[in-house]
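Exercise 3.2. Students should predict the tertiary structure of the chain below and write it as structure tokens, then compare their answer with the key that follows.

Predict this chain's 3D structure.
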Amino acid sequence: QVQLVESGGGLVQPGGSLRLSCAASGSIISINAMGWYRQAPGKERELVASITLGGSTDYTDSVKGRFTISRGNAKNTVYLQMNSLKPEDTAVYYCVAENTIVRRFQFWGQGTQVTVSS
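Answer key:
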């Protein structure tokens, strides 16, 4: 199985920045794309950003121009640089990894809380 360990969440003021990190271990050969989901109370879970093995990225509209997803050289680490943070970015952020066999984000991290507040 694959384990995802996340770090970098916390409290930040509006307009500030935060960098989330996620490292995969275990059967990493099973991993293809990686990404970040977030879920806030009263809101539907959404895929914030994703990145393929080839480096292609995609973002949800609300974070375009502010967030940047990247991947480590070993391809088992993914980062989310979050700039110009807004209160509406407050959510639990989950690192996800695509199972190469089933072609879906099967592997999930434990989640890390991001709170944007003054």
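Discussion points: The two ends are 40 Å apart (CA to CA). The longest strand covers residues 18-26.
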